Amino acid sequence: MQTINFHIEDKIGFLGLNRPEKKNAINKTMIEEIITTLNEEKSNRSFRVLVIYGEGDTFCSGADLDWMKDGILQSKTQNINDAKLFTTLFESIHSFPTPVICEVQKSAFGGAVGIVASCDITICEADSKFAFPEVKLGLIPATIAPYILSKMGSSNARKRLLNPQHFTADEAHNEALIHYISKDAPIREKTLEIAHAIAASAPDALIQTKSLIHRLEENIDEETSLLYCARLIANARTSNEGQEGVKAFFEKRKPVWNNGENIPSV
Questions:
Q1: Is residue 119 classed as helix, strand or coil in its secondary structure?
Q2: Which of 17, 42, 192, 254 places its Cα 20 to 30 Å from the Cα of 75?
Q3: Strands 129-131 and 167-168, sheet pairing
């Protein structure tokens, strides 16, 4: 990979944006490499949570300026294809089977905030900055808007997408873009604390819970959703994993998935 790093350590997958000399600006190669890696790793059960971060001291400055310049000279069809790449990127993160944590060092602007919003859990540094500069440049934040709206709600999305000014970590937290701010320790310590807590959970339960959340976010009628939820919990209670988890709790021991063992799914 030219623009990203990927490795697995202690049941945690780490995907690093790796263009620190460009503040990890997003270009076409980076998007393609992220999408390829997520597709290759989505069935990998050797890790239970994925952390997306930026190499160096900055998470991501947004779209690469040289790529943006090229866009001015491209045809409408070429620009549509580039936009589809962004859409695929955000959806690949959003729909990744295991939980995804986004670790934001220093700043995230434009498309980078789309990556943040596509993740399940978000954490940043106390002095992190965020911005949506698109309207100032005569552009529209079209590909990131669905994820910003879902993460921040309509009111906060209007406030930010229409205003290109920077906003702070505290503002991002208050407006639901960010879940945790690392104020008293290095951000990686807080990230690992959260990641290890998730990684200690039952692997099938994690995947099915994330799938449940996505299903309920869809516009399905109440009766259908209630029946779906009832069937899901019934299946979980009778599954090998569910049986093992409850037995381990009452027997005051660790379940087998925390002892490096696998348990068959049913």
A1: coil
A2: 17
A3: antiparallel
The domain boundary residue, chosen from 179, 199, 219: 199
Q: Give me 141's structure tokens.
A: 């934040």
Place of tokens 């503002």: 171
The answer to whether residues 90 and 185 belong to one domain is yes
Which whole-number Å values give the CA distances from 68 to 1, 27, 63, 137, 146, in the listed order?
A: 22, 9, 7, 11, 22
User: Looking at residue 93, which CATH number applies to its domain?
Assistant: 3.90.226.10
* Dihedral angle, C-alpha 111, 113, 114, 119, nearest 10 °: 140
Is residue 263 in a domain?
Answer: no
- Return the percentage of the chain with pLDDT > 90, whole number: 68
Same domain, 63 and 106: yes
**Could you give the CA distance from residue 24 to residue 118 in angstroms, rounded to a whole number?**
17
DSSP secondary structure letter of residue 109 = E
Sheet holding 129-131, edge to edge: 107-109, 129-131, 167-168
**192 and 216 together in one domain:** no
The per-residue pLDDT of the chain, averaged, comes to: 90
Distance CA(160)–CA(226), nearest Å, equals: 35
Question: 128 with 250, same domain?
Answer: no
Asked if the model's pLDDT at residue 266 lies above 50, the reply is no
Q: How far apart are CA 264 and CA 26, in angstroms?
A: 40
Q: What is the pLDDT of residue 247?
A: 82
Give the number of domains in the chain.
Answer: 2
Q: Which domain holds residue 50?
A: 4-199
pLDDT tens digits along 112-164: 999 999 999 999 999 999 999 999 988 889 899 999 999 999 999 999 999 99
Cα–Cα distance list, 170 to 135, 162, 166 (Å): 23, 19, 12
- 196 phi, psi to nearest 5 deg: -65, -35
C-alpha 251/C-alpha 266 separation (Å) is 23
